[in-house]
Write a structure and sequence with these properties.
Layout (H helix, E strand, L loop, with lengths): L2 E4 L4 E6 L20 E5 L2 E7 L8 E11 L10 H11 L5 E4 L4 E6 L3 H10 L3 E3 L1
Parallel strand pairs: 1-8
Antiparallel strand pairs: 1-5, 2-4, 2-5, 3-4, 5-7, 6-7
């Protein structure tokens, strides 16, 4: 069983062209519980951030909610992300997953949030809203 926190507000999944400079407002002065993650590749930049911080030039998918495993987790710990994704996959809820040094996160579509949290609770996880 995992403790899972529902972070406040909506999130966006964004794509920017390779080499784009991220405006400081994306990560500066994050609110309590906010998270921003960036992945750079030769093909482009992937950004996950609170919906109100999306850069103007981004291609964006919005209306996601973020679930965070309450941590910190030990890096050698295995199976925690799968413990979230498996019940969501069985419930046919699409996800975007990412990890930080301390824990794992899963984005679910806002319109499927009730289904997602119900699936996780049926799997024995506790959701903290």
């Amino acid at each position: 069983m995992l403790d899972v926190a529902l972070l406040p507000g909506e999130y966006a999944v964004c794509r920017l062209p390779a080499g784009t400079a991220l405006p400081q407002r994306v990560w500066r002065e994050l609110g309590d519980g906010d998270v921003v993650t960036v992945s750079w590749t030769v093909d482009g930049i992937s950004l996950i951030c609170p919906a109100g911080r999306v850069p103007e030039q981004a291609v964006v998918e919005t209306d996601w909610r973020c679930l965070r495993i309450v941590g910190p987790l030990d890096l050698p710990l295995t199976g925690t992300l799968a413990a979230l994704i498996d019940p969501l996959a069985r419930a046919r809820v699409n996800v975007v997953a990412f990890s930080t040094y301390d824990t794992d996160h899963v984005l679910v579509p806002t319109v499927r949030l009730a289904e997602a949290t119900s699936a996780l609770e049926r799997a024995g996880h506790r959701i903290h809203k």
